[in-house]
Write a structure and sequence with these properties.
This protein has 240 residues and is an alpha/beta fold. It has a single domain, classed as Rossmann fold (3-Layer(aba) Sandwich). It has 9 helices and 7 strands; from the N terminus they run E-H-E-H-E-H-E-H-E-H-H-E-H-H-H-E. The protein has a 7-stranded parallel sheet, with helices on both faces. Helix 1 crosses helix 9, helix 3 packs parallel to helix 4 and helix 4 runs parallel beside helix 6. The longest helix has 29 residues. It is globular. It starts with a strand and ends in a 7-residue tail after the last strand. The structure holds acetoacetyl-coenzyme A (CAA). The site of acetoacetyl-coenzyme A has 19 residues, from helix 5 and helix 7. This is Acetoacetyl-CoA reductase. Its EC number is 1.1.1.36. InterPro entries: Acetoacetyl-CoA_reductase, KR_dom, NAD(P)-bd_dom_sf, Sc_DH/Rdtase_CS, SDR, SDR_fam.
């Protein structure tokens, strides 16, 4: 698969696994990140994948960053909207800032990245837009009114845009990971995490690679008939 791909939040966690898997599949990959320079430098040294720093919450920064990636690697065929943050709090304690930050990154960030790329994908009659939503966008989660709303929004975005992209060879899909062994999940208090693992029928957290393999499939030419879909990968914790 000799395509050009951008993975947002692509230097750590699920995003890093996706970037590596796409490179292994033959893609030219750009890994975007927003803040952690040290992790990005380590990722670049270990993988040889070029990293690009901008915040997906900033539309102009996305347009400029995409321009740089296209100058370096060529037109982008595959966009993986993976960047995401949590600001968990029970609703009565949730601040407007916690709501806003999660919306800006997890929902507006998907618009900010997809919109500047959409015209080129339409012209070239090929595109793959894959957004990493979450089990918590499907079922809701205590202390995540912000995150669950944004991740559910990502699924609605996917279903709407799939209808627009279909005639131009662009597929638009979402993946809903369950609880995956990443820094984000490890930040959940240990007791809470243990109670979550007890609710997962396969009896363990997922691995980032298990999500990356779903992305590689959806990004492939073989997946051209799959659009508007949601792949649920959560160890059986929640059936949609
Ligand atoms: N259901 C019902 N009640 C719950 C609950 C739940 N799932 N979790 C906590 N509670 C209750 C507690 O028992 C406590 O009740 P009491 O006051 O009667 O003791 C109350 O809610 C919470 O009170 P706290 O003062 O402890 O709350 P806090 O302000 O300290 O917040 C928290 C703690 C933020 C809720 C913390 O427990 C937490 O982070 N929970 C995890 C939330 C979670 O699962 N986030 C997912 C992160 S991973 C991710 O998002 C990736 C992905 O896509 C899957």
């Amino acid at each position: 698969m000799s395509r050009v791909a951008i993975v947002t939040g692509g230097t750590r966690g699920i995003g890093a696994a996706i970037a590596i898997a796409l490179k292994t599949a033959g893609c030219k990959v750009a890994a975007n990140y927003a803040g952690n320079d040290e992790a990005a430098a380590r990722f670049r040294d270990e993988t040889g994948i070029e990293t690009y720093k901008w915040s997906v919450a900033d539309y102009d920064a996305c347009a400029a960053g995409i321009g740089q990636v296209e100058a370096d690697l060529g037109p982008v065929d595959i966009l993986v909207n993976n960047a995401g943050i949590t600001r968990d709090a029970p609703f009565h304690k949730m601040t407007r800032e916690q709501w806003r930050e999660v919306m800006e990154t997890n929902l507006n960030g998907v618009f900010n990245m997809t919109h500047p790329l959409w015209g080129g994908m339409r012209e070239r009659k090929f595109g793959r837009v894959i957004t990493i939503s979450s089990i918590n966008g499907q079922k809701g989660q205590f202390a995540q009114a912000n995150y669950s709303a944004a991740k559910a929004g990502d699924i609605g975005f996917t279903k709407a845009l799939a209808q627009e992209g279909a005639r131009n060879g662009i597929t638009v899909n979402a993946i809903c990971p369950g609880y995956i062994a990443t820094d984000m999940v490890m930040a959940v208090p240990e007791k809470v995490r243990e109670s979550i693992i007890a609710q997962i029928p396969v009896g363990r957290l997922g691995e980032a690679d298990e999500i990356a393999r779903c992305v590689v499939f959806l990004a492939s030419d073989d997946a051209g008939f799959i659009t508007g879909s949601t792949i649920t990968a959560n160890g059986g914790q929640y059936f949609v």
